[in-house]
From TrEMBL:
Belongs to the Mediator complex subunit 13 family. It is found in: Nucleus. Keywords: Nucleus, Repressor, Transcription, Transcription regulation. GO terms for biological process: positive regulation of transcription by RNA polymerase II. GO terms for cellular component: mediator complex. It comes from Asbolus verrucosus (Desert ironclad beetle). The keyword Nucleus applies. One of its GO terms (molecular function) is transcription coactivator activity. The keyword Repressor applies. This is Mediator of RNA polymerase II transcription subunit 13. InterPro entries: Mediator_complx_sub13 (IPR051139).
Length: 124
């Protein structure tokens, strides 16, 4: 059995990067192009590179916003397991921020929204 060690949670820092939020890049809301290989996706490729560099990270799909007018539904949402949905990449570290320049896809730095928090009390 593995023994767990105590960690000071107040020192954990994180960064959230959002790709294709609200149809960024001229796409319809929730549609982010894609359809290629999974590692060609900016979020999934960045996720894989962070894991290979031993940086703790997670990614998640972001739900497609509902249209404001229910009588004008707009384009249908992408299929549930499609690569063309909006995604977030969350990167966690303790202490000094790791150099993420070579790990994070350029699309996330230019079109993504970056939120930095200094402790776990930071609100979304």
């Amino acid at each position: 059995m593995t023994k767990l060690q105590n960690t000071e949670l107040s020192g954990i820092k994180w960064r959230k990067l959002v790709y294709c939020e609200l149809g960024g890049g001229g796409a319809a809301p929730g549609h982010c192009g894609g359809g290629g290989e999974p590692l060609e996706d900016p979020v999934l490729g960045s996720y894989a590179r962070c894991l290979a560099a031993d940086i703790l990270c997670v990614w998640r799909r972001v739900s497609t916003p509902r249209p404001a007018d229910m009588f004008e539904p707009g384009p249908p949402p992408p299929p549930p397991l499609s690569l063309s949905t909006s995604k977030e990449l969350w990167i966690f570290w303790y202490g000094e921020e790791p150099d993420l320049n070579v790990l994070i896809a350029p699309e996330l730095n230019t079109s993504g929204k970056i939120i930095e928090c200094l402790n776990v009390q930071c609100a979304r």
